[in-house]
Design goal:
single chain; 325 residues; alpha/beta; Nucleotidyltransferase, domain 5; 12 helices; ATPase_BadF; ATPase; Euk-type_GlcNAc_Kinase
Length: 325
């Protein structure tokens, strides 16, 4: 567990931190700056799951961490692009901790805090993709994070989809499946490349295809040229997001990269490091700890209340009523 000496809490009460991603909700309970309990449940991001599914996931998190003695909840989530988004998520959380202050921030801010940086560029390379940055003066910029229908290039979903497209293209050209295609067909239980079409448009979701990204990296490591090209293109897309933000804010970093791909795929890390270094960004940090622990850094730094998207206290009947998408 992570301990942050000297962090403070409202009235000495405990704090719960939440990292709400596209596939899971990761929660911790902090007591006097130390994480004393930790749990993982399903996604509570209402852009990916129904409101009821989100409510159930949050119920499981608070059942595991406890609701008594909580003075504050700090929740980082994707899909909080407007005050209405933040209010809607805050309302769902407040059901479990009436009277506690509930702060909602974009999950990229947890990435930056987990990298022990108060300014710089935060990147999520996971199921989706986005880059967000903030300067010492508080100026902010963002690139991407529009969701899989509009963007998320370089993400796990994007990689999985590109593997499907590659497999179908080879079939159209009457070429035998290569190592990437063979691995994908086997993993999906598909007898033919064409059967992937119905599977893709039918019972699966973006999390299912993001889960196939590892096949692309494995094939690339084995020398498959198509997989290598897909990984390189993914790195190019992610680097583009980062450089957009760096250019807008005119800062050299640090760049803190999180998300499942950003944290666990060395090939992607090497490509990003090389590309960004060549562009003059040399302080590149790949998270070694989960983003939710950035909550402890925010508290210790005394910055947990600044720059929040729709932050505020919620008690009984004061949670707000924004529309949940």
């Amino acid at each position: 567990m992570h301990s942050i000496p000297g962090s403070t809490h409202d009235g000495g009460a405990d704090v719960i931190g939440l990292d709400i991603g596209g596939t899971k909700t990761h929660g911790i309970r902090l007591h006097r700056g130390a994480a004393v309990s930790e749990t993982v449940s399903g996604s509570a991001n209402v852009q990916n799951v129904s409101v009821e599914a989100a409510r159930q996931s949050l119920a499981e998190v608070f059942a595991a961490l406890g609701s008594e003695g909580i003075g504050r909840v700090i929740a980082g989530s994707g899909g909080v692009d407007t005050r209405q988004d933040a209010d809607a998520l805050r309302a769902l959380i407040a059901e479990h901790v009436p009277g506690a202050a509930v702060d909602v921030i974009h999950d990229t801010r947890l990435i930056l805090a987990a990298g022990e940086a108060s300014e710089g560029i935060a990147v999520i390379a996971g199921t989706g993709s986005v880059a967000w940055g903030i300067t010492g003066s508080g100026r902010q910029a963002r690139s991407g994070g529009w969701g899989y229908l509009l963007g998320d290039e370089g993400s796990g979903y994007w990689l999985g989809r590109e593997a499907v497209r590659h497999t179908l293209r080879r079939s159209n050209l009457e070429l035998v499946p290569d190592s990437l295609s063979t691995a994908l067909l086997r993993e999906c239980g598909a007898e033919t490349p064409e059967s992937l079409i119905g599977l893709f448009h039918g019972p699966t979701d973006r999390r299912y295809w993001a889960g196939k990204a590892g096949l692309v990296f494995e094939a690339a490591q084995e020398g498959n040229p198509a997989a290598t090209a897909i990984v390189a293109e993914a790195a190019g897309h992610l680097a583009g997001l980062i450089l957009d933000v760096a250019g807008l804010l005119e800062i050299p970093g640090p760049v803190v990269i999180g998300g499942g791909l950003g944290m666990h795929q060395p090939m992607l890390q090497d490509l990003l490091r090389d590309t960004l270094s060549a562009a003059g960004l040399r302080d590149i940090r790949f998270l070694a700890t989960d983003p939710v622990f950035g909550v402890a850094y925010l508290l210790a730094a005394g910055s947990a209340g600044s720059g929040f998207a729709g932050s505020g206290s919620t008690g009984s009947g004061s949670a707000g009523s924004g529309n949940v998408r």
